[in-house]
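Late entry, written up from scratch paper. The run itself happened at the end of the previous shift, but nothing got recorded in the book at the time, so transcribing now.
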Amino acid sequence: MLKTLPLKRLKVDRAFVRDVVNSASDQAIVRAVVAMANAMSMELIAEGVERPEQRDWLVNAGVLEAQGWLFGKAMAAEDFLQWLEQQ
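Output as recorded:
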C-alpha cells in the first residue's frame, strides 16, 4: 500500500519509541522502518520522544527528525507563534 500512495514522509509511532531503549522488538521495528524509509527515499520522523536516551538511540539508528515532550510541550497555535517570534 505504501508504494501506491503519494507519501513523502513516514512517522515512527510513539508505541515503538516508548520502550525502544530496552525492547529488542521495538528496536527491530524501528530499524525496519528506517530501512524502508531510506529505500523508498522518504523522510522519517519519530513521535513521542520524551527522554534523551530515546533520542540518542533513534539518532544512532538513523532517525534524523523527532517530536515529543523532550523538545517542547504541546501549545496552542497562538502561543507557538508568540514563542517563535521570541526566538
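The radius of gyration is 15 Å.
(Scratch paper discarded after transcription.)
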